[in-house]
Amino acid sequence: MTGIPSGDSVPSSTAPRGLSRRALLGLAAGAAGLVVGGGAGAAVATSVASGGARAAGDVHPFFGQHQAGISTPVQDHMHFAAFDMMARTSRDDLIELLTDWTYAASRMTQGLDVSATGAVGGSPEAPPDDTGEALGLPASNLTITFGFGPGLFEHDGVDRYGIADRRPASLERLPAFLNDELVPQLSDGDLCIQACADDPQVAVHAIRNLSRIAFGRATIRWSQLGFGRTSKTTSDQSTPRNLFGFKDGTANILATDSAALKQHVWAADDDVAWMAGGSYLVARKIAMTIETWDRVRLAEQDRIIGRDKAIGAPLSSPGGAETAEPDFTAPDAAGKPLIDPVSHVRLAHPTFNDGIRILRRGYNYVDGNDALGKLSAGLFFLSYQRTPEHFITLQRALAKDAMSEYIRHIGSGLWAVPAGVSEGSYIGSALFA
Q1: How do residues 129-177 score in pLDDT, each as one tens digit?
Q2: How far is residue 163's CA from residue 385's CA, in Å, rounded to a whole number?
Q3: Residue 350 in 3-state DSSP?
Q4: What is this structure's pTM?
Q5: Burial level of 238, CB count in 10 A (0-12/13-18/19+)?
Q6: Residues 342, 348, 349, CA angle at the centre, nearest 5°?
Q7: What's the pLDDT tens digit per position in 104-131?
Q8: 282: closest CA among 156, 189, 354?
Q9: d(CA 215, CA 173)
Q10: CA-based angle 209:211:216, to the nearest 5?
Q11: How far is Cα 433 from Cα 430, in angstroms, rounded to an integer?
Q12: CA separation for the pair 200, 227 (Å, rounded)
């Protein structure tokens, strides 16, 4: 991984041309017509003109073997966006967009504006390059992760960009699952960007500006804000809770477990060579029927999940540790399993799914209230796995999940996340080699 440039500069090898002319026009066009979600605000750009100082310990390198934002320590906030390429765009347009995004992302993850002139360093007679709401904020551990959807390779039977023969065989729209109530406007997309940070304004700023840079080439299809991570990827992170009040992600794959990452997360080159070192991202927007769940007895909630709500221990280890391994044969006083056969923990456990594990990076979300006053809230599930088949296997195993009565899957998408990028190149460059 490379070091972090000092001051407000990025090595010229990162972006020999800076932002393309079309990207600059997009910046000038402002945010008109873009839907980036409501809420918090923006991320950071510390330009020379702003006089701000970048915090030393809150930067994740953008360049490296793998994209940041996968095994990186999970941040507290997220802004996710799916994009569709515009009609009549060319292969060169797509490459130019990915190059512009790489340049801007490499700067924003360091706490810089999207360009050298940024929010306040350009001509006062021209729109600024950067929206400016992140001025003075630190980088806040911002990570920006890019993915390619099935439609990028072939759309309505048309190979728009000459890459159809390089589509991974498993990169297809996810199949229909039991209890799916998917909304097309909340699903799929040719491209996706996952921006995670410890400050929600930093994450929103990243998506806002990358959307503006996409002007004339791609438009946002849908987006989602998330808060309160529902997983951990380091041993020093505490296990968070989801909106049902239960600890989530107890057995998640950790960044230090290189063997598990290699086996379960990082894609190999046995399908298509350009995906080696990448991963596959699944996003599922899961609405929770909060008000119904809140009227369920505590003991029944424990049974549905298979864990104790207070500590997070499996029900086979009453009073035990959260990390205790579940014993699915341990009986209660009546001789029945302490962990219900249709509990979430039991159905999702690797023991019953060919040893499959996934790396989770989900977030809670609240989108206000509906017309009846009920919370529009739930889990924005994000998982990384070396092949989409692993997720499909797990999701099908959860068809009988006792928790299904209280959730609805309303959004869905699958993207191939290429390996990391080196300086002087751009994200996904191996796909076009």
Answers
A1: 999 999 999 999 999 999 999 999 999 999 999 999 999 999 999 999 9
A2: 23
A3: helix
A4: 0.89
A5: exposed
A6: 105
A7: 999 999 999 999 999 999 999 999 999 9
A8: 189
A9: 26
A10: 125
A11: 5
A12: 8
